[in-house]
Structure formats: C-alpha cells, structure tokens
C-alpha cells in the first residue's frame, strides 16, 4: 500500500468534484481527485448532455413544422441513427480522455479507483488492478459522489432488469414500446424523447406530472404528450412487474389495468451514492444524504465537505457547480487562514440553494422555473401576489410560431415589492430564465423593473406584461 499527502482530496470527478478541485488549485492548494468511473461524471455521459442530445432533433423538427414556409421543407421524419450519432458525439463516445487532459492541465492529480473514507482526513483507494493507495488530506476531504437512480421495492421490478436514466440516455436500439414509471423531470423528458424516436410510450405517475412545479406546467406537458400519441396515466401506482413469455414486461397497476412494453424505465427519484463510501469510519450513516451548512461543511465536522447531489440541497448540475465554487474557495480560505465570507450571499456560501434555484425541463413544451412557486411561497407563510400571463398574447410569440401556446407566472413578495419566483412554459422559454433568476437573486424592486425595457418583438415582453398586470408603482 502506498501513501500520498495532499492539501485536499476530492472523491468524485464529475462536474462538481472538478470545480471544487479547480478552485482549490487556483487558491494554491495541492489536490487529488478520485474517480471510479468516467471523469466528467453523470452529467457528461448519462444525464444532462446525452438526454439533451436525444431531445434536440424532435424540438427542432416541431419548431420548423410550426412555421408556414418552413414546414413545407420538412419532407421526412426524425432519423434515429442520426440522433444517436449526435448523442454519441456529445458524450465523446463515453471516452473521458479530454476530461482527463483538462484535469492534468488544471494541476489536479487523478487517482483512478474506488475511494472510501478510512478515518479522519484519510481516503483509501482501491485501484482497477486491486492495488491500495491511501490519500492523506492535510486540510479537507470533499465528497462529490452524486446520486443514483432509486429502484422502488415493488414485487418483481428488480427481476425484469428495468432501465434507469443511464440505460435510457445510452440507448443503442430504440424499443418499439417503453413504459416509464415516474412523474418527475427525468420521466417527462424521456417520455418526450422516446415519443420523438418512435416508441409507443406509456407514462405512469403516482400523482401529477412535474409535481413540485406550478400545476399548469405538468398539465401542459401531459397534454402535449397525449396529443403526440403517448398514454399518460396519472394518480396511478405500480403494483408489480414481470417478464412474460414474449419477453415483454407486464406491469400491474393500482387501477387494475395491465400495461405491456418492451422495456420499462424507472424514474422515481434518486438516492445518494454514499453506501460504499466508508462513512461508518467517521461516525456517519452509510447510504445517507450528508447534512451540510451553507459552506458545504458536513455538520459536526471541521474537515469533511459534501458538495452537489450528495447533500440533497438541489439535485441539479449547475447548482452543484455553484456549491463547488463556494466550497473550493472556503476550503482555501480555511486552509490558509483567510477571511471567511459566510454571510448570506457571501463568497463562501450557497445562499441561492434557498429559494433561488433555476431549472429548465426540456419537454414539449419547455418548462423554465426559478425561485418559489405559489404553493411553496404560501407554505412558507409569505404575503404574495400571483401574476399570470398567456404567452401566446405576446407579439414575439406570434413571430416564432403560427400557433404558439404557453403560460407564464410570476410570484411577487408584497411585503418587499420584489419577485421571488417565476415559471414559464412554452417553446424556447429556457432563454427567459436567467433574467428571472437575476431579478430573484438581486431582489430587484418591481418599480425599478419598469425601466428594464424588453426588446420588441421578443418573448421577453412578458416582463412588461407582468408589470402591467401588477400595476404602476405609486409615485
């Protein structure tokens, strides 16, 4: 067994771990990063990038077919092989050589293998060849191992070899039929993608679609899937699963019906990748989410950090990278005796995790949201006003499509006169999101937003319509 010593040891070389490591190196620390799979992590190979690759062709085709003059040029259907080739390009054919090169250029040492905590500031790495290396951290260890798909304990489900998001995004042969269990973002996006790719899709959700979002978001996405030929079964539970003689999966549902499909995708949630991390060696519960403060320091510790999905604050790549920037900087500050800026919105905290998280769901129609929903704001006891607007009424919508449809909602904190949340549903609304996020994070007074003039004719005119709905400020 060999030993190496670094200022910081990072477990997990996905986007989150890479950013923690990079910030620490920029601050003058020596860093080793441990990875048991591909450098670049879930986002690069099995989540964000490949899923958007599968979705883009369908979105582009629908956009062309929605405009007279362009739709006449559309003479065929989606080329599935072309979609998969583009997906493969986006994942670099599941080859992490370029990501490894980036790490080396950044000055971060890569240690291949499975890392486990073996004591305070100690990480034992089992290499692919079975060799053992102990990494000793002078100052900190950062756990950035992410999350994995949850497989619910339903009779027969494990025996039918269900897909998770990994199998769905890495698909090599599109099944003739696909049953999707779940109603969240992964389920909705993969339903959209596989309808585009020609599968007969049945989506089974125990509640409504996109439950944590504004209700109209899930309703519009469910209606679109139905209109495009998918079967959407809401408020329905999966009771059991089995493979039948012809090789298909048969699902028994709580309403007594049975659904058959060539494959079943389970997208019912995530679990932390901490079950084989050696947490018991540092008096933490294996398999648990890691509870952290706003600097990503695990509560009760002065050396262990948990960044990204694994802390269960906001399971989104961009939010994990945001946490990573704060964590990397605060690790440097604590290691070098620097000043800690841990006040709200300080350089060393992830304040935006609390009520200012942006997200785009790449369904048809697209859903973009940030901050509070009406339900979450009321549950928090806020004094709010809800502003709703039909996006089809905006001139910029009519120039994009012959029959644009969409909905927008803003949540206003009446006590402070600021925006605390917004949701947009419609084609291309993801590009509206950063303006909304800036308004929420910056706590921009609505009276000042009257002077942020939206260009005409664009979808951004919705900002003026929100203000007109709210009413002119008293002067």
TrEMBL record:
**Swiss-Prot/TrEMBL keywords:** FAD, Flavoprotein, NAD, Oxidoreductase
- Pfam families assigned to the protein according to its UniProt record, in alphabetical order: Pyr_redox_2 (PF07992), Pyr_redox_dim (PF02852)
The UniProt family comment states: Belongs to the class-I pyridine nucleotide-disulfide oxidoreductase family.
Task: Mention one GO molecular function.
Answer: oxidoreductase activity
Q: What is its EC number?
A: 1.-.-.-
What cofactor does its activity depend on? FAD
Q: Mind telling me which InterPro entries this protein's record contains?
A: Class-I_Pyr_Nuc-Dis_Oxidored, FAD/NAD-bd_sf, FAD/NAD-binding_dom, FAD/NAD-linked_Rdtase_dimer_sf, Pyr_nuc-diS_OxRdtase, Pyr_nucl-diS_OxRdtase_dimer
- What is the uppermost EC class here? oxidoreductase
Q: Where is the FAD/NAD(P)-binding domain?
A: 6-318
Its recorded name reads: Dihydrolipoyl dehydrogenase family protein
**Domain Pyridine nucleotide-disulphide oxidoreductase dimerisation: where?**
357-463
